[in-house]
Amino acid sequence: MNASEELSPGDALQEIDRMRRHVGRSTRWTGWLFLIWGFSAVTYWSAMFFVPAWRAFAGVAWLIMTILSTVYVYRQGVYGHGYTRLQGTVTIAWVITMAGAALTGMYVLPGDPSGWWIALGVTVAVVAALPVLYAGWRLRPWEGAR
Amino acid sequence: MSGNGAHPRHGLDQVIHTPVRLSIMAALAAAEKVEFRFLRDTIEVSDSLLSKHMLVLEEAGYVKVEKAFVSKKPGTWLSLTPKGRGAFQAYVSVLEKITKGTPHA
């Protein structure tokens, strides 16, 4: 847009809509990232608890996701409505539930879980993911620019 | 800021109603916080032009400029103030009133 051109009301509305869509596209990624982390956490803990052969792969995948997310967060230049309010609470809850899952895996679950131990392990994996799944749900990236 | 005539266009906030400042306000209205460089690249202006218009909006009390860390990222973060958000909503209402009242706005 030329900074010196005359602005008609129609042009102004078009520009507002264009900006809303453009910025909305960028803010939606934060919500998707939370959801990706949530589903990854369920998969990660399930692998750690029940499939010893996948532990190394899950660990490497987790490390790669952490690096990519850190790069994304560092490059992210826009945050959607509600992000700041969620960020602190979700981070604290995420650290607590992930630590809880790790401690459950180390001290509670048997080496070869079966029966109710599987139910407990799955529950712990889901609970570990809840903070980020909640954040993703609150940001509602599937709804588009709001 | 606005004239005294009866036509809705007189109600257009002249602080917002310029191409660059409109883009800035529209971008900030669509987010909670926007980083200076992201905004500059999004609306395709130079650093100096963006700074100049940001100053006008800041002086009008529409925009808050913070040098802060967000998600551990340092930068100049921009956001609309409640006054700015209200002014932008009022501005959009006037635009809609004009375009609904005139078929070829």
UniProtKB/TrEMBL annotation, chain A:
Top-level taxon of origin: Bacteria
Protein name: Uncharacterized protein
Transmembrane segments: 29-47, 53-74, 86-109, 115-137
Keywords on record: Membrane, Transmembrane, Transmembrane helix
TrEMBL record, chain B:
Positions of the Winged helix DNA-binding domain: 20-98
Superkingdom classification of source: Bacteria
Pfam families reported for this sequence: HTH_34
The protein's name: Transcriptional regulator
